[in-house]
Structures are given as structure tokens and as C-alpha cells.
Amino acid sequence: MKAIFYLIFLSSFFSQSLFAQVSISRSDYIDRYRKLAIREMHRSGIPASITLAQGILESGNGSSRLAKNGNNHFGIKCHENWEGKTIYADDDLLDECFRSYSNPRRSFRDHSLFLASRSRYDHLFVLDPRDYKSWALGLQSAGYATSNEYADRLINIIENENLYNFDRVIKRLKSKGKKYHNRLMLSPNGQCYVIHKEDESIESFALENGLSLESLLRFNDLTFSSQIKAGERIYIQKKGKSFSRKLREFSTHRLGNDQNAHFVSQLYSIQLKVLYRLNNWSVGYQPKKGELIKLK
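Given the sequence above, the corresponding C-alpha cells read:
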């Protein structure tokens, strides 16, 4: 009887030891997967902080059954278009189908593709790539998870672990000491802009901050007679020549209500003349609602 008890004890001990070896701490998880998150940020525009926080939350620092047996770090279910390997686990329902990957790198890449390929997340990819709070709130409102505390939990992880340090930073712009420094936003293309206020004009903004009015008008494809509304973007450096995201899901934009070519140019930080050239438009042409606009 003692021998049987001893064998049971040893079996339990080794099982717990094996689990301890497989399980890692949160800091170890961050060290192990931060490079993957940063790589995906440069490919897709999803803040590395968001990717890491979701991985931490969804996989329990990589210790969940889905993560250990299926390399699924983000709790992504099979859905109708999945043709890869699967693993089953209880979630909202019993024995649900989840995606299974050969390694964690494929899980991180599929996470980017999953968000990029679903229109309900489109509004997130034109945010300032350092704006993890809006990303967290947007993921929750778009239905990534059913919990009403999902955004708060992501934000707490990001701030407790200082994950925002992995997100994109403003480079090559000497703005320290300038009045507009604390207003600077970053486009997904990497160009800086400020949000136009109700009580200012582009002329007053240029004068107050010692900037060239002619340059601001040129950067924003405006003329001296252009009217700018509060909430619109004012770029303080030249926009890009195409949209920089490296996923094919970001190669076009479907024109919506109250949108025009200039709106798309400002939204994606693409020079207006380049947008016309990409789409083979004649001078003065204005795309119509529903038209598919090329971004690269």
C-alpha cells in the first residue's frame, strides 16, 4: 500500500515539476515574445503593446492549454474560413473549435491577419500607433471579447508592464520646446500631425508656433482659401507616397459618406498628387461613394 502511495506521490511530483518548467512568468513571456510583437507592429500597424497584452491575457502568460498544445496565444476560434489544424476547448460554449499553429510565430502573424481582414476593426488601423488606449477600447467595442472589462484589463497590463515602450516613437522631428510638442500625433505612415482646434486657424497655428504657412498648406494639400474644420488633421511634415502597411488588406479604401480624395489623403497620410497617380485619375476628378481607392 505504501509503495502504491509513493508511486502516486512521485507521479504527482513529476507532473507538477513538468508544469512548472512549461509555465513562465509574465516578464519571461514579454522577453520571449516582444520581438514577434514588434515585428508584427511594423508589418500591420497593431501596437506591440496591444499584441503583447492580448497574448498575456488570452494565454495566461503562455500557460493556457490552447497556447501550450496549439500555440494559440490569442484565443482565435476557427470561424468559417479556417482550413488549418484545430484544437477544441470550452469557452462560451462547450468544446469549441480553436485554431492550432505549428509554432507561436504563426499565431502572432495570424493575429495580425485576423484583425486586418475584418472590417469591424478597420477604424483602428488609422489611429496613432502609440494610442494603445483607443486600440483597447476599439477591440472591446468591436467584439473581440465578450467581457465588459476587456479594455481595462489590457490597459492595466500595458501600464503595469510598461509595454508602451515597445510602440512606435516619433523620429527625425525636432519639436522639443515647441508649443505644439504635446499635441503631436503620429500617423500609421509615421508622419506627425496635430488636431485642428475650434478656436484656431491654420494661419494662427503657423504664426504661434513659428512654422511656415506655405509649408503647412503644401504638406496638407491646401490653398490659402481652404476651410479647415475642428477635429481635422494638420500635418507638420510631408505625407508619404503610399500606405506603409505590409499586408494586402491595406491596399485599398472604400469611399464612404461625406468622404473625398482629400479626406483619404489625410486619413492615410498619402500625398494627394500621389493618390491621384496611384488611381490614374485626371486632374480635378472626385471619386464617388463606394469607389475603391488604391493606397499603394
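Residues 221 and 272 are 7 Å apart (CA to CA). Try to locate this feature in the C-alpha cell string yourself.
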